[in-house]
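[stage:ingest] chain + small molecule (zinc ion)
[stage:ingest] validated
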Amino acid sequence: MSYNNNLALTDSVLPRIHHSNVESGWYFQRLTTTSVETIQSLLDQLNFPQEKRKLACKTCRHLITTQDHKIEINGHHHHRFTNPSGITFEIGCFASATGGTHRGMPTLEFTWFSGYSWNLAHCANCLTHLGWFYQASQAENFYGLILANLIET
Ligand SMILES: [Zn+2]
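[stage:predict] done
[stage:export] tokens:
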């Protein structure tokens, strides 16, 4: 193909591309914030397929929970707390953690979530401390898991 033919092809294609960009811009400008968030969430799922969304115990790789069980407590999934011994923990809130287990008498002492008692949560396989199980009532409970102790698989 000669130089001149390439030029002719470019000239004929460019106006159509330009037109299409204008239409895309028109479309995206009319999306509501909720629509944009929905599209973003769908794109995230495409980028991180289901099998990459599992969270396992960092010590033994036992499956603990999945990203789908992420919940917000007091408006946030991710919290940062320092215990009375001065140790800071980054924790994520999860509605359930089927691979976790919790033991001991629940207590309200030094609770990080007002109205929720806590006891220690461990990996059900290797018993590594993974965080805390919080309970406000029989039906209202969640796991606050130490993010550094989990690994995505
Ligand atoms: Zn484990």
